[in-house]
């Protein structure tokens, strides 16, 4: 019997894997439903309603300005000291109607071209969370229940067993991520058709979306590998989950506060979420307003620092090498008891 097929079957048969997967997919489905409910397709009726709302807003501002002008004139005539009014009450004038744009009052609508790139981030986050938790539980449960020892009696090659488990995990996650991503594309395309617009899509835009979706899948595989390696190091699921809580809540939160107190330039560059976001969006520009780069017009511009997906890929590669390398080293060196 193939060890890989056995591990893949064990992964898919675990109730924790199934319920975690269902929970992640349910969250994504709720996001799609929420987008469908909160957005509308813009047509003549919506434009007419927006124009009426803009006219009403303009009329209310005219009434308010006229009342304020009357109050100003009354205060001036009474000789009151009113510094909050201008010297000439005639300067209190309402905005022109064309300054209040009708599109400000349009309902929310889902524009696929401008909105879908951002909607790939929650997809990647859910897949990464599912991959991390399932990966940690998959190997952690084997250690805590004694299944790893029994398996090594049948197949005594330690590193082969651990890497085969990892391969089965990544294969199963990939089998989930690919159709989930395709369903995400299709669902949001339908939302845009019914509750927004799909205009302006070009081959270059589609290519950009597909590459971003691919980076999201890679992020999920990285998270699953790290969760698997941490649980293998600690020989318990709690090692990975506790480590994640420590890093995200204590480490990143505490580090952010410390960097802000120390007034470190571009403090976000030391935080993991910055690199995750840069991986998905290709570039994150950090600004430091405490530094002034004067332009030729004398304007003060903030100093900037670009974090790109290349920096993120380097960080992810180093992280996988460290955690997975340590897990393999301890698997080979430590006793299995």
TrEMBL record:
One of its GO terms (cellular component) is plasma membrane. The keyword Kinase does not apply. The chain crosses the membrane at residues 16-37, 119-141, 162-186, 206-231, 238-259, 314-331. Keywords: Membrane, Transmembrane, Transmembrane helix. It comes from the Bacteria. GO terms for molecular function: ABC-type transporter activity. This is ABC transporter permease. It comes from Micromonospora zingiberis.
């Amino acid at each position: 019997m193939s060890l890989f097929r056995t591990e893949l079957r064990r992964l898919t048969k675990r109730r924790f894997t199934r319920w975690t997967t269902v929970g992640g997919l349910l969250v994504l489905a709720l996001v799609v439903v929420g987008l469908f409910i909160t957005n509308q397709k813009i047509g003549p009726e919506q434009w007419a309603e927006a124009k009426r709302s803009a006219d009403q807003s303009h009329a209310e501002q005219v009434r308010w300005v006229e009342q304020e002008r009357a109050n100003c004139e009354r205060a001036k005539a009474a000789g009151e000291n009113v510094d909050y009014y201008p010297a000439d009450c005639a300067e209190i004038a309402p905005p022109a109607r064309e300054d209040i744009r009708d599109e400000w009052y349009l309902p929310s609508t889902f524009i696929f071209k401008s909105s879908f790139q951002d909607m790939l981030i929650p997809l990647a986050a859910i897949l990464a969370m599912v991959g991390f938790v399932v990966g940690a539980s998959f190997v952690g449960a084997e250690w805590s229940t004694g299944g790893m020892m029994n398996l090594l009696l049948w197949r005594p090659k330690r590193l082969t067993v651990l890497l085969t488990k990892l391969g089965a995990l990544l294969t199963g996650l990939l089998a989930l991520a690919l159709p989930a991503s395709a369903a995400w594309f299709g669902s949001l395309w339908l939302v845009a058709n019914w509750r927004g617009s799909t205009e302006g899509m070009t081959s270059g835009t589609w290519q950009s979306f597909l590459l971003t979706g691919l980076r999201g899948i890679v992020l999920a595989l990285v998270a699953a590998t790290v969760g698997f390696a941490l649980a293998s190091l600690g020989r318990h699921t709690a090692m990975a989950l506790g480590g994640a809580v420590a890093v995200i809540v204590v480490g990143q939160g505490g580090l952010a506060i410390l960097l802000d107190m120390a007034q470190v330039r571009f403090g976000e560059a030391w935080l993991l979420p910055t690199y995750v976001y840069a991986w998905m969006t290709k570039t994150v520009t950090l600004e430091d307003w405490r530094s002034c780069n004067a332009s030729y017009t004398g304007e003060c511009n903030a100093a900037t620092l670009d974090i790109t997906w290349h920096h993120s890929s380097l960080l992810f590669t180093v992280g996988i090498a460290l955690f997975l390398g340590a897990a393999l080293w301890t698997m080979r060196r430590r006793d299995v008891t």
